[in-house]
Design goal:
It is a single chain. The protein has about 270 residues and is of the alpha/beta class. The protein has helices spanning about 10-30, 50-60, 75-80, 130-140, 160-170, 215-220; strands spanning about 1-5, 10, 35, 65, 100-105, 110-120, 150-155, 175-180, 190, 195, 200-205, 240-245, 255-260. The protein has one domain (about 1-260): Metallo-dependent phosphatases (Purple Acid Phosphatase, chain A, domain 2, 4-Layer Sandwich), CATH 3.60.21.10. The protein has 6 helices and 13 strands. The strands form 3 sheets. It has a 6-stranded mixed β-sheet, covered by helices on one side. Strand 6, helix 4 (about 130-140) and strand 7 form a beta-alpha-beta unit. The longest helix has 19 residues, at about 10-30.
Length: about 270
């Protein structure tokens, strides 16, 4: 079983790169299930529109995860309840529209559970992320309720993400961090068989400040009066994510490999 998850798609540059390159990537790497974090996919670089989601699904994505920018495009509140493949963080305030996890069927007819979580430190106020994770572990068992389990932990700080990895070790196929827009180099299979990476990076223009126009970002840091609101960098995008080969019998990881394709970062693709 080959599972690919792509990091935060940042603005038009990242979105267009994913839509253009994902179909060929799926074919070449024989990928059975694709997750895309789409919370920054809108033209503004904040939020996701229904059209953005449709484009990702048409390109081969099976599920779209998100994070703290899920409601930045107001239309998302209206369509998220009907589009079950778009997830918002599970631990948002009770009563929030949409769902934070689901069980989906892969291209090779396997059940894949995906849960979207959001950290509590330096993020928008939400319910306790570790209590939400604990409840999910109690309710959804690997190889009983789902053949594979994927965790997107959207958070600012490394310690929360690492701790979440250990909480799920042996209970999920993979745990990856999103949100910081820079890929870390700690991808590995943990002691009990769960693939892990602290942050899988960004699908976007890396000649930027985490996806935003670098000149304008510098002006904002320098308190230049001519600075504008943040807007996305529009140069050539890098696709960044993690590909995991999982064991059909155990649901745990057998091989883990970062995918870095195009743009200004050094390519990594086996």
């Amino acid at each position: 079983m080959n599972i690919l998850i792509l990091g935060d798609v940042a603005g038009p540059s990242g979105r267009n790169a994913v839509v253009k390159k994902l179909p060929d990537l799926i074919k070449k790497k024989k990928i059975d299930f694709v997750i895309v974090n789409g919370e920054n996919a809108a033209d503004t670089g904040f939020g996701i529109t229904e059209k953005n989601a449709e484009d990702f699904f048409n390109a081969g994505a099976d599920v779209i995860t998100s994070g703290n920018h899920i409601w930045d495009e107001k239309e998302t509140v209206k369509f998220i309840d009907k589009e079950k493949r778009l997830l918002r963080p599970e631990n948002l305030t009770k009563g929030s529209p949409g769902k934070g996890f689901g069980i989906f069927v892969s291209k090779n007819n396997k059940k894949v559970a995906v849960i979207n979580l959001m950290g509590n430190v330096y993020m928008k106020k939400c319910e306790d992320v570790f209590q939400s994770a604990k409840k999910f572990i109690e309710d959804v068992k690997l190889k009983k309720d789902a053949d594979f389990i994927v965790v997107d932990m959207h958070g600012e700080i490394t310690s929360e993400k690492m701790a979440m990895g250990y909480l799920f070790d042996g209970k999920a196929t993979m745990v990856v961090g999103t949100h910081t827009h820079v890929p870390t180099s700690d991808h590995r299979i943990m002691e009990k068989g769960t693939a892990y990476q602290t942050d899988i990076g960004m699908c976007g223009d890396y000649n930027s400040v985490i996806g935003m126009n670098r000149d304008n970002s510098l002006k904002r840091f320098l308190k230049d009066s001519s600075a504008e609101n943040h807007f996305p960098a529009l140069g050539e995008a890098t696709i960044s994510g993690l590909l995991v080969v999982a064991d059909d019998e155990t649901g745990l990881a057998k091989k883990v490999q970062p995918i870095i394709l195009g743009g200004s970062l050094q390519e990594r693709i086996w």
